[in-house]
Amino acid sequence: MPATTERNFADKKTMSIKKRSWAEPFKIKMVELLKMTTPAQRRKAIREAGYNTFLLKSEDVYIDLLTDSGTSAMSDRQWAGLMMGDEAYAGSKNFYTLEKAVQKYYGYKYLIPTHQGRGAENLLSQSLIKKGDIVPGNMYFTTTRLHQELAGGTFVDVIIDEAHDSQSLHPFKGNIDINKLDAVVKKHGAVKIPYICVAVTVNMAGGQPVSMENLKLLREYTSKHGIKIMLDMTRIAENAFFIQQREAGYSHKSVAEIVREICDLTDGATFSGKKDALVNIGGFLAVNDFETFEEASNLVVVYEGLHTYGGLAGRDMEAMAIGIAESVHDEHMKARIGQVQYLGEKLQEAGIPIVLPIGGHGIFIDAKRFLPHLTQDQFPAQALAAELYIDSGVRTMERGIVSAGRNAQTGDHYYPKLELVRLTMPRRVYTQAHMDVIAESVANVYKNRKKITGLKMVYEPRYLRFFQAQFEKL
After folding, report:
1. Which one of 252, 274, 279, 346 has the lowest number of neighbouring Cβ atoms within 10 Å?
2. How confident is the model at residue 106 (pLDDT cuts 50, 70, 90)?
3. Is position 141 annotated as part of the catalytic site?
4. 275 counts as catalytic
């Protein structure tokens, strides 16, 4: 990204999607009643959950911002698609519908469905990684890194430095630092690198996008060294929208066109349909070379199911195919990102320290700056997520030292520079009034932040501890 572009972007401070008021490009056809609780009930619930928002019962949650994975509202067309399910064990017609959608919108030749994104991560890792391999990527993601490690690989972070600075206004903080990557290749040799893992709208950096310019430079580099690029394309439509809005030469292109251009620069991808594709379950591995496809097709039978259903019902594949098409509608993405932008600007007005620029799938509160009196060993992001729930019944999640886990060799905590609380926005679920409630709750907790105490971990599972760890107040 040229310095002038970044400087112009920084001068704006925030990016408004539209100057005039806007509304969601849909109308509500069905509602789900929410349970209202008292602060006393919420204190009891979070204590019984070990101060881990993942262990709360959903019925005790008012506004659920835990994740955007599988929590979106499906459209009337998707619900109709469920009735089109062909539940044959082999050769379901819904598989071929999904295959056509992937080929049309993403361009990959071969498709292997999986029950969700981490199933695809496992197949990719088992197919391509050998013991001792190095897998560079633009910041780790929890399940991705674990599957790479279980296959015998070692993840190396090659994201640009700005990604680790919550206040940097670089418009594409998800970019790969080509110099860092080159140092890894020179140290280990291209033969030890099965692929480079590129995530779009990088989750752990605050939903920050990758520029098309960076992807083109990466493709040029990997072509010279014979290295594959494998895309974590879970939120690719969001990344495409940011390219459309922020990168020179793309304002006239549709989200669908930009999505396809991103995919065409890579060799394959893992995908969680539970995000962009607006379904409650499902994912896939898609690749262009037959050898990788053949190996993964064999492994999917072991881990997921036959290669034409991969752990999914036919109706789930049909709904995902429809969701893929809906995900690249420009008006849908304007509303999706616009709602996140709206909440982020409300929090900025209240003086809340958040990751900037405002990202794609949620708002990320900087817990280190929110709770400067707590050390990282006192799990400030985990403590803050618990306090937000107590205040209003809003469920968020930690993205910091707990999510980072431990070094498999030394057993020591990883200490990420970013200690964040993620307010993740389900698609097509909440209204602007819900955003106002959330903003008021965060502001109230911020006003009383000096009273918040840290936590100590009293139970730690072996893998992906943030899902099941339990804590007590210090």
Report:
1. 252
2. very high
3. yes
4. yes
